[in-house]
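anyone else get weird line breaks when pasting these?? whatever heres mine. first is seq + tokens for prot A
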Amino acid sequence: MSDTPMQVLTRPFAIEPVTNIMMPDGIFDNALYHLRIAAHITNMSGTALTNVTVYLESVGDPGIVPVARTFFFASIPAGAAMLVMWDANFEHAAPGKRLVSFVAKADGHTPRRSIQQIFVSQTRFDSTSNTYTCAIEEGTLTLSKPQGHLPGKGWGTSDGKQCRCPPWPGPVIPTGFTLAWAPNPAYAGTHGELPFSDPWWKVLAIIIAIIAALVAIIAAALGSGQASFSAGGEFEETDPSVHCCSPEGAASGAPEYTVAGVASAIASGAIAVACSDAADPFWRGQEATPPAAGELTLGERVVAQWVLPEAPNAGRPYTADVKWQYERFTSGGNYQHGVSETQVNIHVAGPVETDTPAVVQAFEPLWLRASFRRDNDDLFRGNELYAFALFQAPQGLYFVQPLVDDGLGFDPGANDGVYAASLNLKEAYRLLLKYGQQVYGTWRAFVFAQDVNLSKPGTPPEIAAQHIGGMFVASAIELTFDDSLPCPLKAQASIVVV
């Protein structure tokens, strides 16, 4: 028999389970003990496969402890990419690149193993100096003097009407910082080794920003002790303040923390825009300051500040007017280079197109289909997105469901650009009863999507670094600098259950 024609073709990525969001560029950080190892495994054959099992065989670091789970699929269409994920404990994970092995087995075939790398970082906070460090094998990035737009005093309210928000102050939109890179080891020549030989240094800065937010959110949701460092970092406030609100009336808190995580991820994405996807300030600074022959670069620093004319939001080409100064410290002297420019968010998308039934009989499944278009009007397809939907019951309870383009369930076809989510009302009803709520009435649906880093193994580092995953391209929540605007959480669809 031949090997099962299923493989994990792209790098697995990290999902934070309280908020359900993908970590920046899918990187795992051991500051958060509990993360999910998510991957798309693809049927590479031209025919459907039957009775398929998929499991995670091993991780190349004993400090990473996954929970055993086997996925079963009665049938997988030709070409379909299935989203699978495993809970894992990363408390004792070592920073660096680690191999992960997946095994798939289908009827009529022998088991087949897929091996991919994951990236692990280690972020810590020093309360005495108000500095964050992110350590990896190639060196350590230290973030100090953070600046940002802080949430307004009316966070979570709209026109005097209180929105239900978690006990969390709201997202900070970064507008500046000082980044210091200590390479390991010191290097000769113009360019040092890229982090993980893949992303720009700015991705580590985004990791620091989102972890600072997530630790606060997780502590609010689950209590203290869920992360390995304090989240007590302070930002120097820059005007204007940020306003927004969370889902109203939810009896269960978890989806509220999903919205909190989405808002923080969108806010932190401003770093990616200000520091450019094409080449970040470290790479461009290195290019402009080649050291003399025989000199070793011992350290580097970037001081950056930017102005956002409008609040950052998912999928929109918002701009950042940025100034940054790069400095290289070598064994023979110091070099400097400065830039003033305007950068534009390139992770853009068109409006979300949704399709749902207008009316559903009680205890039949709810379903939603969504399409996401790029700025050139092409559709995102298959494994190009990590997406999910929130279904809100008539009296406020929320349910998080994955949106997938795998040709199963209510999805009309694999890789056709239509992503589908569904909710089993019979199972949901048990939780509704627990909170004294009914299944009958108008349900609302909110849709969210992040792009996925699809860089293939072996891509030259300076090319791979230009492809960043984990940026929100669609969101039902918006950030604003104008507190007079109505609550910017907008349902993309509604369904009446009778």
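and prot B, same format (seq, then tokens)
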Amino acid sequence: MTESAQLQSGHRHWILIACMLAMFMAAIEVTIVATAMPTIVAELGGFAHFGWVFSIYLLTQAVSVPLYGRLADMWGRKKMFFIGASLFLTGSLLCGFAQSMAWLILFRAFQGLGAGAIMPITSTIVADIYSARERASVQGWLSSVWGVAAVVGPLTGAWLVQHFSWSVVFWVNLPIGLVAMLMLARWLPDRQQQEETSLNLAGSAWLMLCVSALLIALLQAEMLGYWLLLFLLFAVLAGLLLKRNEQRAEAPLFPLAIWRSRIIVAGNAGNLIIGAAMMGISAFLPTWIQGITGGTPLQAGSALAMMSIGWPLASTLSGRLMLRTSYRFTAQLGALLLIAGSALLLLLRADSSIVQAGFTAFVIGTGMGMSSTTFLVSVQNHAHYEIRGICTASIMFSRMLGSAIGTALMGAVLNLNLARRLPQADDPVQQIMSAETRQSLSEGALHQLVQQIAISLHWVFIVALGIAVMTLWVAWAMPHSHKPDEE
């Protein structure tokens, strides 16, 4: 018996609200901590290692996402959500008590292990309690959580740091998470486990080693130097051993049904590409606004927020479009919008307005929201209840992995261009990003730096456009006529 079969219709709305609260807690964590980091570094020190505050969180979250998805299928959504949420809230509590940067990094790793459960399991719970036809529309509500978090997070973080201690930035998660847990404890029924199953421990270990080595190589590429090759080699070796283990295991982490389904494979490939393309705007549009056009951090944040507004709007629209047309058509339309928005990045000039940058971000957000939601809903509708958790988790994991790959790839493109165009300059991007350093430069030197960095960023945007084109290819590979009504 599934959770949805046991539910009274009136309880579904409370469960949806609880899932949205939990997802909001995880979504706001990224932006709210980023705003507070200057204050945290000033008090704790350890500036050289502060990047690990974000990297370790992403690493432990990404590693644990597939494991939670599989365990949610085996042992029930409710049990695994409570385990993950408890880890996340405990990590949040400990982060606020950190006395040094090393302790903060350790507690962030603990927090990330819990965060790996929240996004895939809440999305799976919602897919369980709504029908195939309803899921397309409900996913728009879940997507809106990320849009609100992207706008509210930085403002909330700045206000909390200004009026309270930076610890409150982490502790604000506690009431939100506890309310979500209480609501799910009250209204989400337990799944009746029909047979004893156990997790493939050997496969889990190889998965964690493979993903950890790959993400460390991607996220710390500049710091590792030639050691990067060793990490990549280890990731490949662990991946091959994982594949061998999966082929022999009685209960593989990734059931064979995942690889045999054209829809599920396309959904994962699409989100991998979307994750990579997303970094072209998330990481480098603010650099363009502040460095090339001389805008303020507030203007850069406002322009980037337009992507977070376009995403949920397009996600909601895609739900209706899927019902009237097909997964394939909706994904293709989203891919075309993503390509159009990425092409608009190439039209940015030094004198471009913030409005133009914001409109570009909005178009990209609509493309990502429409295509990403379509890929997710098609996979959830196609997957049976017994494997829906791991299928949903694989979608989330693919997007995270794509973001890491996109960051490393586009960062390498930018650095190679800067090394070729400005070989004598010491950290040229930092020179034009810092208001004090920018003012100290002569007009000729500033013009030269801005011109060459702008050309280098355009090459980054060209790569982002190329990645966006790949999304259209994946959408084209989806089955022709499938839509929610037929699942």
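btw re prot B: The chain is about 85% helix and 0% strand. Residues 1-6 have pLDDT under 50 and may be disordered.
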